[in-house]
Amino acid sequence: MSKIIAVMANDVEDIEFTSPAKALTDAGNEVTLVGANANEKLVGKHGTEFTTEKGIDDINADDYDALLIPGGFSPDNLRADERFVELAKKFMLNDKAIFSICHGPQLLMQTGLVKGRTLTSYKTVQTDLYYAGGIVKDEPVVIDRHLITSRTPDDLDAFNKAIVNELQ
């Protein structure tokens, strides 16, 4: 069993959290929803309500095997908080598993560590990734070592399969 941190703020693309989290837990993994604060109510773009289990200051990245970054407007909100940037940076520097979909790579760009990495994202973020030095592919799933990225909810089946396989 692997332990995964899912980082989220308001306006997440609901299914980009619920679908991967279900796939991961169905495969026997543990997903912990982390926000700015523990027991915080968050609302997705489509009205789904979520409650964070832990706050960013309550976790130690070393205790987790993977980082899940769902899309929507959540990653843009998260990258304004240096604590989430530092968490993503730690996962990238330690070459730990990162699962990022849609606008999720916005948080990764903020680390300054996407240069030379191969990844994808929602189409409007792809140009930003390119200018940040990333090697951008317009494919349903892109795997660069332990960094797995995807574009949209339409790619969730392939994304979920890839992230579950990564942890097996």
From TrEMBL:
<keyword id="KW-0315">Glutamine amidotransferase</keyword>
<comment type="similarity">
    <text>Belongs to the peptidase C56 family.</text>
</comment>
<protein>
    <submittedName>
        <fullName>Type 1 glutamine amidotransferase</fullName>
    </submittedName>
</protein>
<dbReference type="InterPro" id="IPR002818">
    <property type="entry name" value="DJ-1/PfpI"/>
</dbReference>
<feature type="domain" description="DJ-1/PfpI">
    <location>
        <begin position="3"/>
        <end position="165"/>
    </location>
</feature>
<dbReference type="Pfam" id="PF01965">
    <property type="entry name" value="DJ-1_PfpI"/>
</dbReference>
<dbReference type="InterPro" id="IPR029062">
    <property type="entry name" value="Class_I_gatase-like"/>
</dbReference>
<dbReference type="InterPro" id="IPR006286">
    <property type="entry name" value="C56_PfpI-like"/>
</dbReference>
